[in-house]
Design brief:
By secondary structure, this protein is α/β, with parallel strands linked by helices. About 50% of the residues lie in helices and about 20% in strands.
């Protein structure tokens, strides 16, 4: 499964390794980006099963908004340092997690989002 990860510079390796473990036994191919513009360009070329935004504050909010506008059918997992869950609801975020995020919560959120993507794919058939 292809996953787009938008996170702060120097945090991408930490989040990518945590996501690989959280998704077990499924295997993920993770595309890391440090800004939404890069991920939006990649969205034009590649299909994703899940988009993950691990950015704090308003930067995360703006990233979620732009991704939702570009790919409303792709589940979004949003991880932030502040409770933006109401905005997450507005942008139909599949799961919202407030930092710090335990491995169990991350695993549950990833599994739930991937399940949503699978159901969406079944409905297209």
């Amino acid at each position: 499964m292809n996953v787009g990860l938008c996170t702060a510079f120097l945090e991408e390796d930490v989040w990518a390794s945590r996501l690989l473990v959280a998704a077990l036994p499924q295997k993920l191919e993770i595309t890391n980006c440090n800004n939404v513009q890069a991920l939006l360009r990649i969205l034009e070329l590649k299909t994703f099963s899940l988009l993950i935004v691990a950015l704090n504050g308003v930067t995360g909010l703006e990233t979620v908004r732009q991704l939702w506008e570009k790919a409303p059918e792709v589940p979004i997992l949003w991880i932030s340092d502040e409770d933006y869950s109401l905005f997450g609801y507005q942008y139909r975020v599949s799961r919202f997690l407030c930092k710090p995020v335990s491995d169990i919560k991350l695993s549950e959120a990833v599994a739930g989002c991937l399940m949503l993507f699978g159901k969406g794919e079944e409905n297209k058939k």
